[in-house]
Design goal:
Shape: elongated
Number of domains: 1
Largest sheet: 2 strands, antiparallel
Distance between the termini: 97 Å
Strand order of the largest sheet: 1-2
Mean pLDDT: 81
Oligomer: single chain
Order of helices and strands: HEEHHHHH
C-alpha cells in the first residue's frame, strides 16, 4: 500500500490557507463595523470568501479595504508557531495588495485616487485642534510659513 505521508503537508497548507482567508475577511468585517459601513453579505465562490458592503465615503472604504491585508500582515508575527501559517498569510498579504480588478489592492488604489480628486489631504485627527500631534504639525506649519519681518534695529 502506498504511503500517504505526502498528503499531510498539502492538507495542512489548505487548512492554514482557509484560516488565513477567514481571518482576512474577519478583518474587513471588524473594520466595517468600526467605521460604520453596513455589510450586505458575506459569501464564498471559486476565488474564496468575499464581503459585499455598502458604498460609503472613500476614507471609510480605504480603511475597510486595508483591514484584510493588514490582518494578514499582523498574523505574520506568528511565524515562530507555524511556517505554513506564515506562508499562507504572506501570500494573502501580497496578492491582496496587488491592484488586480476586484482585489483589495484595486479598491485601495481606487479609494486613494478618489480621495485625491476630492482634495483630501490628511486624516481628520491631524486637523483636529485637540490632538497633540495636530498642534505640533500646525505649529511647525505656522512657523515655517511666517516670514521674517524686520524689526527696527535689524
Amino acid at each position: 500500500m502506498p504511503s500517504l505521508a505526502w498528503f499531510l503537508p498539502c492538507l495542512q497548507g489548505l487548512m492554514f490557507g482557509l484560516l488565513a482567508m477567514t481571518l482576512h475577511e474577519a478583518g474587513h468585517l471588524i473594520a466595517a463595523l468600526a467605521v460604520g459601513v453596513r455589510i450586505k453579505t458575506v459569501g464564498i465562490r471559486w476565488k474564496g470568501l468575499y464581503t459585499v458592503r455598502e458604498s460609503g465615503p472613500a476614507q471609510k472604504n480605504l480603511i475597510v479595504s486595508l483591514a484584510g491585508p493588514l490582518t494578514n500582515l499582523i498574523l505574520l508575527l506568528l511565524w515562530p508557531l507555524s511556517e505554513s501559517f506564515f506562508l499562507a498569510n504572506l501570500c494573502f498579504t501580497f496578492f491582496n495588495l496587488l491592484p488586480i480588478q476586484g482585489s483589495d489592492g484595486d479598491r485601495i488604489l481606487t479609494c486613494w485616487q478618489q480621495m485625491k480628486r476630492e482634495g483630501w489631504t490628511a486624516p481628520s485627527f491631524f486637523r483636529a485642534h485637540k490632538s497633540p500631534l495636530a498642534k505640533l504639525v500646525s505649529t511647525h506649519r505656522h512657523s515655517a510659513s511666517v516670514s521674517h519681518v524686520p524689526q527696527s534695529g535689524d
